[in-house]
Amino acid sequence: MAANPSLGETLAVLLARDIADGEKVIIGTNSDIQLAACNLARRLQAPRLWWISGPGGMVNPTRDHLLSTADYENLESAESWMDLPVMIDFIDWKIHFFDFAILSALQVDRFGNINTVVVGDQRKPRVRGPGTVGISALCGLAKRFYVCLTRHDRSAFVPRVDFLCGAGHMEGGDSRERMGLPPGGPRLVLSPLGVFDFVPDSKVMRVRSISPGVTLEQIRDSTAFDIVVEGMPPVTTMPTDHELALLREHVDRRGDLRRKFP
Amino acid sequence: MAANPSLGETLAVLLARDIADGEKVIIGTNSDIQLAACNLARRLQAPRLWWISGPGGMVNPTRDHLLSTADYENLESAESWMDLPVMIDFIDWKIHFFDFAILSALQVDRFGNINTVVVGDQRKPRVRGPGTVGISALCGLAKRFYVCLTRHDRSAFVPRVDFLCGAGHMEGGDSRERMGLPPGGPRLVLSPLGVFDFVPDSKVMRVRSISPGVTLEQIRDSTAFDIVVEGMPPVTTMPTDHELALLREHVDRRGDLRRKFP
Amino acid sequence: MTKSKIVSVDEAVAEIPDGAKVALGGWIFNSQPMALVRALIRKGARDLHLIPAPGSIAPDMLIGAGCVASTVCVFISFEQFGLAPHFRRQSENGTLKVYDLDGPAIAGGLRAGICDLPYMPVPDLGTDLPKFAPEHYWPLPSKPGDRRMLAVAAVKPDVCLLHAQQADEHGNVQHLGPPFFDAMIAQASRRVIVSVDRIVSTDTIRRSNHLTKLPSAMVDAVVEAPFGAHPTASPSLYRSDEAHLKDYVRSSASAETFGAYLDRYVRGATSCAYLDTIGGSRLAALAVSETNLK
Amino acid sequence: MTKSKIVSVDEAVAEIPDGAKVALGGWIFNSQPMALVRALIRKGARDLHLIPAPGSIAPDMLIGAGCVASTVCVFISFEQFGLAPHFRRQSENGTLKVYDLDGPAIAGGLRAGICDLPYMPVPDLGTDLPKFAPEHYWPLPSKPGDRRMLAVAAVKPDVCLLHAQQADEHGNVQHLGPPFFDAMIAQASRRVIVSVDRIVSTDTIRRSNHLTKLPSAMVDAVVEAPFGAHPTASPSLYRSDEAHLKDYVRSSASAETFGAYLDRYVRGATSCAYLDTIGGSRLAALAVSETNLK
Predict the structure, then answer these.
(1) pLDDT tens, C75-130?
(2) Residue D195 three-state SS
(3) Is A129 exposed, middle or buried (0-12, 13-18, 19+ CB in 10 A)?
(4) Interior/surface letters B218-244, b for 16+ CB within 10 angstroms, e for the rest
């Protein structure tokens, strides 16, 4: 019987379950949870998941631990090694090349827009974040995306992002399509408190399932907008022993998820 | 004492003399004379001439014979091997990346415009040529270019090209600059009958030197426009024994120039 | 498990409809996708709109066999063997519509196709090309002092036919020589069909992964076709068959002789029969060797 | 003979004027051009306009040392060690002008720079970026039914500072790991300065010529700087020095402690003195080895 999963492990498993075989995805530099989710999915239902290192251009490297996708050692086992000038066409311009992306954020709002730039005014911010890099293109151009946050509080779940650098459902409803973006947008938001999706017509965030031991009150108190609750949401299905064993033996042998996201 | 130079050898030597060290040039697929000129210049005054294979992206390969620049064996001795998606930016868009190019043509006109597309009307041509490929960009964007023809007759030296696919001095005078092209244009035209340049202000083609044994009458009769003659042009300085020995021993050991352009 | 992408040459071309926009890879006498081209002729394809990379016998044979309504021409030539015979004849007859494009138009057009943009800006180089292909070139406004620009239209082939040296069953395709425009053509095309001289393991692919110019995500079908570029060269494996190329040009002199050529090498012939017709000793002599440099 | 492009680190930066637009290569904790950055700080550079590839300590240290008037920000972060301290402080103070650009704006902008075009079209992705950097983004007209597009302005650095693993005296520069944006930055920049961990013969360059991401025609000056990316990694040679990066973040807490950091590691120190200050055993322990994966 495996020990209890850490937060990072749980998020990786929940994401892995939503990935289909043959899908295409890009993974950024400092992306332990994203990488673990993809490599776990490859061990389960998606052996031919296709992933490319955003910074380095290595395709489908195999390691049994979480190596930064920028690390040159991904070269040893990659199926292809592309240069950025060749990759940027399908990363920054092409519609629906990637099936999905998994992103983190400083803020996510009730329509699933995300912000990694600033809290406050861009010209004199309260918190200056790292910036946008590929987020705008992945949110705008992938078939769907996931937002994965390791904290859930009123500073992260906001009514409206201070700086929109990744388009979710924009102003809700069909505003994303009216803006001229291709079909897509956020599918799930994952946090320590639960899993969230979006109401089909209004595109407002709603509770899909709740982490074990967490209450709806806790979620409402930690969210700075009216999150939709329909009936009594189920408890999130936690990682199984099998999932956890695969994760720990073949994906994250060094235990980085447990150390970094306990 | 070397045997007399063939036409191809003479043209290669005349071109090689005009190349300066450190210059950058691109060479196309079927370019024996161009390649011989560049590799000979590297043996003489331009050891760090930089050349790249237009189709293959190999930089500065060294062979002692004339291998097609598309041939993969250029890889063995190249200093770099670039892919076309990376190369096209500086080939097709960038101003003055290349110092010069050496081009052939179906037709050249009195302002040095060239045509490799059709004789007659593009929609129902008398002669359908191979097409434009890199010629428009090289004529338009290199600092200068050379036109090298292995025949000189009234069908090749025409008043106006039937289809302009490489801009020379356009309509003459400052029309090239007025068109918005960067400074440049044709520097020399070489043919079996002589070497030709352009009058500084009018940009009309003129005789610069005459091949040994050729008369001005012959040149005038073989040219379908009024070519400028100022005084009595000198006889072209033929390849020296030293130039010819280097060419035959280190550049064209298999004698392709003598065989193809006798 | 995701299933293998390996199909037969006839399966690969079966779903290319008449009237399709078909791109062809390679470069003049290198890596022309000839096994696929012959299959397309056998299938009786009609009214194709070709978008060939600078090429020779691949577009010319399709044109000669009556499969083609129009072609883009960046460069179509038989180099030391002269002009491309059928391309030339049908252009001069006026029975083939030809869109002349230069390097910037094909490179910019493919890039726009890859990027899902309607056009790409290129410098106005003062040529006659826009006059004869206004569908492909139109003026772009520019500010005073800026360079004069044209828009070149996105090039989006329905399908492309490419030839490379090796691939695995997942569709990781490796070029052992220059990839020319193949990687751009593949990214711009809706469907990507690649013939290769040999199928290798994914471990072999990994060993030289910088040669994987078409990773599996960009490839729909792989055809194992040894000598699939014949009579053109497959870099590092075999050189072009100059005798055959000359024979092709000679055979193209009349409808009768060209019909006989097609009957002998294309219409009646599966890929195996083709190689037997060419003959084992001829093929063996094409091996890349210092002794058979032309 | 053309003369060698090898110069000292101080010669390399000597002619970078105050107020220059300076691009920085690498990627976060990989190949930050730190030897060149330290030389630029020693020289007392002022009012620079930075155009960093996604980076960490290279832009942050220049900002902290008071060399910078404005910066492009694609991504500036210390990842697991937190936000970039000086970039953050001066942004929040409002003393640093920041132009936020996304991937399409830097990629399209560099490509426009390379191509001598005033702008490149990119898709309008519905972000707030254009509102805060209208110099870099403006609307492009599009036809009905076409995708909505923005123009992104050409990015043309006056000079770029890059770090790679090896080069020859002619300036053929090889990346033994991913080149990230380096090749695009080099092509877009007016002057290209590259530090490398080692100088090799041209024969060594030829042996792996696919790694020559910057052929000599694109390089103006080469600096031999062993451990020149320290405290960031130089792919295949050494890993990042996490202890030093943490120390940098800690030292950045106040003007006094950061002044002491600069005195110790930058202002007083030639490149040799810097390596001695870091210490031989620390440097040796950074060697890429399976035993020191973080």
Answers:
(1) 999 999 999 999 999 999 999 999 999 999 999 999 999 999 999 999 999 999 99
(2) strand
(3) buried
(4) ebeebbbbebeeeeebeebeebeeebb
Q: What is the DSSP letter of A149?
A: -
Most B CBs within 10 A among A83, A88, A89, hence the mutation to make, goes to A83
Q: Is the pLDDT of residue C171 over 80?
A: yes
Distant-in-sequence contacts of A72-77, Cβ < 8 A, 24+ apart = A72/D176, A72/D177, A72/D178, A72/D235, A72/D236, A73/D288, A75/C209, A75/D177, A76/C206, A77/C206
Close Cβ partners of D89 (under 8 Å, ≥ 6 residues apart): none
Closest A-chain CA to C116: A94
Closest CA relative to residue C236, chosen from C185, C286, C283: C286
Q: How far apart are the first and last CA of chain D?
A: 47
Burial class (CB in 10 A: 0-12, 13-18, 19+), C7: middle
Q: Is B81 on the interface with D (CB under 8 A)?
A: yes
Tell me what percent of the residues of chain A surpass a pLDDT of 90: 98
Burial class (CB in 10 A: 0-12, 13-18, 19+), D142: middle
CB-based contact B115:B163 (threshold 8 Å): yes
User: D243 — contact with chain B (CB < 8 Å)?
Assistant: no
Among D172, D207, D209, the strongest candidate for a mutation testing the B interface, having the largest count of B CBs within 10 A, is D209
Answer yes or no: are the C-beta atoms of A16 and A44 closer than 8 Å. Answer: yes
Q: In this complex, is the C-beta atom of D96 within 8 Å of any C-beta atom belonging to chain A?
A: no
The CA distance from A138 to A102, in Å, is 9
What CA–CA distance (Å, rounded) separates A149 from A34?
11
User: For residues C88 and C62, is the Cβ–Cβ distance under 8 A?
Assistant: no
Residues in B closer than 8 angstroms to D2, CB to CB, are 21-22, 47-48
Low-confidence ranges of chain A (pLDDT < 50): 1
A72 and D177 within 8 Å at the Cβ level: the answer is: yes
Tens digits of per-residue pLDDT, C211-238? 999 999 999 999 999 999 999 999 999 9
Listed in order, strand segments (DSSP E) in chain C are 6-7, 21-24, 48-52, 68-73, 97-100, 119-123, 137-140, 149-153, 159-167, 173-174, 191-199, 212-214, 221-224
Neighbours of A155 (CB within 10 A): 12
Residue pair D98/D69 in contact by the 8 Å Cβ criterion? no
Alpha helices in chain D (DSSP H): 9-14, 34-42, 57-64, 85-93, 103-115, 129-132, 182-188, 202-207, 242-251, 255-262, 271-278, 280-285
SS3 B227: coil
Chain C: residue nearest B31 by CA?
Answer: C79
Closest Cα to residue C64, out of C108, C26, C106, C96? C96
User: CA of D109 to nearest chain C CA: how many angstroms apart?
Assistant: 13
- Min Cα distance C11 → chain B (Å) is 30
**pLDDT tens track for C187-217:** 999 999 999 999 999 999 999 999 999 999 9
Question: What is this model's ipTM?
Answer: 0.97
Phi and psi at residue D102, in whole multiples of 5°? Answer: -95, 180
Are residues B195 and B174 in contact, defined by beta-carbon separation less than 8 angstroms? no
**How many CA atoms, within 13 angstroms, populate the side-chain half-sphere of residue D268?**
10
- pLDDT of residue D221 exceeding 50: yes
Q: How far apart are CA D49 and CA A128, in angstroms?
A: 19
Cα-based torsion angle of the residue sequence D44, D46, D52, D56 in order, rounded to the nearest 10 degrees: 50
Q: How many CB atoms lie within 10 A of CB D279?
A: 10
The tokens describing D237, both together, are 């040679």
**Smallest Cα–Cα separation from D170: which of C294, B252, B59, C282?**
B59
Residue D137 structure tokens: 């983004």
Quick check: B30 pLDDT over 90? no
Q: Quickly state the pLDDT bin for D10 (edges 50, 70, 90).
A: very high
Q: What is the CA radius of gyration of chain B?
A: 18
